[in-house]
Amino acid sequence: MSAPAQHPASLPELSPRTPTGPGERPPSAQGPSAQVLSAQPSSVRAIAQAARAAEPVGLAEVNERAELLVRFDRSYLVPVEAFADVAALLTDPRRPHAPFRILTIDGRNTFRYHSVYYDTPELRSFHDHRQGRRLRFKIRERVYQDSGERQFEIKLKGRRGDTVKHRRPLTGDGTPLDAPSRSFLAATLRQSYGIDAPRALHPSLSTDYLRATLVADGERITCDAGLVCTDVRTGRTVHGHEGLVLVETKSTGRLTEADRLLHAHGLRPADFTKYCGALAALHPTLPANRWRRAAHHAFTGAVRRPPPVRAR
To answer: Residue 85: in which H helix or E strand, if any?
Structure first.
């Protein structure tokens, strides 16, 4: 069965739903109170403040302008000071192009995400990514905690190295391991890759974090903070560094303005994903050299791989 969705204590509800009068911006679009923010990690404060400064945009318009189920993703581990500078430039109303706006749903502009990743007992998905195999995939259940919406998602790698996402809603008692989800997985892998779906799947890792999403035509920037990753089998947990925002630029392929601004701050894309990076941090004996450095930077208290024992 799917691991239950839990709200980590470090991720409070920052965007309460409050009715507003005609023409008035929702309080959540103005941002959480200074008192609420002052008790949060600096990364959570940074994305909440960036959301507060941006004009809102609704989900329907986001899906029309930048749904990007087929896209190129670039991940960055961004210190909060650099993030604040980049976000301010992108959302500035005086920006030569239309400023980025903040995804806002029912008066909320920061959202709590809970995901459970599924893998084989031998961690096939993890190792396929480690080895750079073209026919690789990730399987997860994503829970949008503020709305209760649940999705079963399959992320594939396209021929150009792009990310291709397939998903179906989960309702009621539905899980990624029930018959409809299994059929969906089998059909997706057969049609996309011509391979059979793995028979044995188990929950392997859960992630919780707070997200704000900046949107412009044909591109999105997701800004994640307060990351908590838990090994479902052992219960071991690692926490994202509170001074870093995990930024992902998502576009149809070109280098975006956000990428160029991050490069100007001396930042380059990190070889990092939440799933593989967290497993590298949680299991120092896994062969995960490609993620080890970024994982040690991204997580507080990440375990270093023990040095090899030399024969005497």
So the answer is: helix 80-91
